[in-house]
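Board notes (copied after class):
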Amino acid sequence: MKLLLFSDVHENRSHCENLVRMSREADLVIGAGDFGTLRRGIGKTIGWLSGINKASIIVPGNSESYEELKEASKEWPSAVVLHGTGKVLMGISFFGVGGGIPVTPFGPRSYDFSEEEAENLLIDCPEGGVLIVHSPPKGIVDISSSGQHLGSRTIRKIIMERSPSLVVCGHIHESGGRVEKLCETVVVNAGPGGMYFDFRL
C-alpha cells in the first residue's frame, strides 16, 4: 500500500496544493497535525487539502484542538480525525493521538498534554498497525535546531510495548523528512513536503 505522509503545513497553500497533487498517486493519506498556526487558519488549510479524495487519517497538532480540527474537517469528506481513538481502514489498524507531548513552551494557545495525560490517551493503542502522533518519541526524529531531543517519553514507551509497524509524526520541524527505527518500528517525521511510504504489514 502506498501511503502519503505529511505534517506541519501551517497554513502554507503551496504545500497543501502539492499534497493534493501527490495524493493522486497514493492509496491512503496520513496527516500528523499542525494544519493551522496556534489555533488560526485551520479551516482555510483544510479547505485547500479537501481536494484530496483518497481515504485520509489526520490528528490534531499543537496548533489546533481535536474539536477545531473535527469541525473544520466537515469540509474534507474523505478525512477521518483521530485523537485517543482508532480506525480500521483497508484491513489496517490505525490509532491516533494529537497535540504537543510533553507540554510545549508556546503558552495556552498551544494544544498540549503532559506525559501523564498522554498515557491515558494512548491506553487503547493496539499492537501492530500504524500509530499517528503529532509529537515524536523521545530520542527518535526529535532533534531541535539546538540539538535537544524534544520527543515524548510516553510515546516512546508505547512504541516499545505495542510494536506498531509504522509511526507517523511531525512537530519538530528540524527533523522533518527523517526516517529512523525504534526496535522493529519505523518512525517517520513526515514534514510539510509530503513523503511516499510503501507500507506492508
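Comment from the instructor: The chain is about 20% helix and 25% strand. Residues 2-198 form a domain with the Purple Acid Phosphatase; chain A, domain 2 fold (CATH 3.60.21.10).
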